[in-house]
Amino acid sequence: MKKWRVDVHVQNIVEEPNVMWETVDHVIVGSSIRMGTIQDEMKEWLSLHEAHLLEHPLALYLCAGTPTESERIRELEEAYRDKLREHAYFVEVVGSGYDFERMGFLDKAIVRMMAKQKESSLELDEDKLKRLVEAAQTSERTRSENP
User: Fold this and answer.
1) Which of 46, 33, 56 lies closest to 80 in space, CA to CA?
2) Would you say the C-alpha torsion 90, 93, 73, 52 has a positive or negative sign?
């Protein structure tokens, strides 16, 4: 198996939305769900940069607000447009949880009532995360291989 030397740049696009696309070979986009949807800033960024995303190997993942499979699928479909999901080699919900430290009073009250959750939690699916890493390694292309 060929070993790749990879420089990875992690970027919070809500805080730093500008991307130097000429330096990008591969994109992995992840988002959390808040009250059933991704952040407005993420939606806008995805829409604004969709053409660039479709030019690169792409993986998409979410950390959902619910462990229910049908809700996870709905959240994935609403978070990422059909074009992006069809182009991506990986589209999954890799976990679920609630971060009470980042929630306001009203959000906490809603989660406590609806999800019967009283404290922060995070459950990650280690198998899906492993598949994401493996898929990224096998789907990686360099600019010289894919001009």
Assistant:
1) 46
2) negative
